[in-house]
């Protein structure tokens, strides 16, 4: 992993931990039930801060694709994926600043969630392509077939989230699918630390949204959504770190292939 990619990965991981620490410090751990009576006059600043942090993180990752990625598929897939994530978060945040009709807000948020999940799918595809370019996943089909599978999954995700718009299960299933996919790629590429980080943050995020622990559930300052967003920050940092590591291996693999090819041609001429 290059110095730039390493700094971006570690920097946003530290940011997520700082937001989490502040969120824990502002909780009322003894009388958390009373916070439910505060009402809507106190917006959940923790949710806004964590959401803007995700948007900033995805934007930076879309701009600064891991150095050394010469494969246009990896380059475009990474930029498209993180770019869609950033745009989707901005779209959903807009509902906080520009109140509108409930039905319109629901459709806008649903569109943002769909875009967010499709962005994650594009990142997963870029990660798989980077692994194949690095000499791994040799038993998997080529990029064209993987791309078609991604398109089918994208259609399935859209249908699933439209059907389950009134519940979070569509987004949860999509998130689990992509997280396990990237974890599988990490294990196959002998990047167990990134696989562990992906699985840990994925499970933590799903568990937080499903169980909604107190006092975050009743907090008007740093609620369950903000807590889950910190795990999403860590998950996104892990996905970027994995892609950066695979790009580094891809560059090394290409250099070794070129050297071997040159040696073979030299021996043939002699």
Main attributes?
270 residues; mainly alpha; single chain
Question: Roughly what is the average pLDDT, rounded to an integer?
Answer: 80
Radius of gyration: 21 Å
Taken from the alpha-carbon principal axes, the silhouette is globular
Fraction in beta strands: under 5%
Q: Give unreliable regions as ranges.
A: 32-43, 253-265
Structural class: mainly alpha
Order of helices and strands: HHHHHHHH
Distance between the termini: 38 Å
Q: Could you give the count of β-strands? A: 0
Largest sheet: none
Helix tally equals: 8
Q: Helical residue percent?
A: over 70%
Structure description:
The chain has 270 residues and is an all-alpha fold. It is 77% helix and 0% strand. It has helices at 3-25, 45-63, 72-97, 102-133, 143-163, 169-188, 192-211, 224-269. It is globular and about 55 Å long. It starts with a helix and ends with a helix. Mean pLDDT is 80; it is low at 32-43 and 253-265.
List the helices and strands and how they pair.
Elements lengths: L2 H23 L19 H19 L8 H26 L4 H32 L9 H21 L5 H20 L3 H20 L12 H46 L1
Helix pairs in contact: 1-2, 1-8, 2-3, 2-8, 3-4, 4-5, 4-6, 4-8, 5-6, 6-7, 7-8
């Amino acid at each position: 992993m290059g110095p730039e990619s390493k700094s971006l990965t570690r920097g946003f991981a530290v940011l997520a931990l700082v937001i989490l620490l502040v969120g824990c410090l502002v909780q009322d751990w003894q009388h958390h039930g009373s916070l439910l009576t505060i009402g809507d006059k106190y917006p959940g600043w923790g949710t806004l801060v964590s959401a803007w942090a995700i948007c900033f993180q995805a934007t930076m990752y879309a701009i600064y694709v891991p150095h050394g990625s010469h494969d246009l598929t990896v380059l475009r897939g990474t930029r498209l994926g993180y770019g869609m994530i950033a745009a989707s978060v901005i779209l959903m945040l807009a509902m906080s600043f520009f109140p509108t009709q409930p039905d319109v807000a629901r459709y806008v948020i649903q569109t943002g969630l769909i875009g967010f999940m499709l962005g994650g799918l594009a990142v997963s595809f870029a990660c798989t392509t980077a692994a194949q370019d690095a000499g791994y996943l040799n038993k998997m089909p080529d990029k064209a077939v993987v791309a078609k599978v991604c398109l089918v999954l994208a259609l399935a995700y859209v249908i699933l989230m439209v059907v389950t718009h009134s519940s979070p299960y569509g987004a949860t299933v999509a998130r689990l699918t992509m997280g396990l996919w990237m974890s599988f790629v990490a294990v196959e590429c002998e990047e167990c630390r990134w696989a562990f980080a992906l699985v840990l943050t994925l499970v933590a995020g799903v568990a937080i949204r499903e169980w909604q622990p107190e006092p975050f559930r009743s907090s008007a300052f740093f609620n369950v959504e903000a807590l889950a967003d910190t795990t999403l920050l860590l998950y996104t940092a892990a996905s970027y770190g994995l892609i950066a590591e695979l790009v580094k291996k891809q560059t090394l693999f290409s250099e070794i292939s070129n050297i071997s090819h040159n040696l073979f041609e030299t021996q043939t001429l002699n």
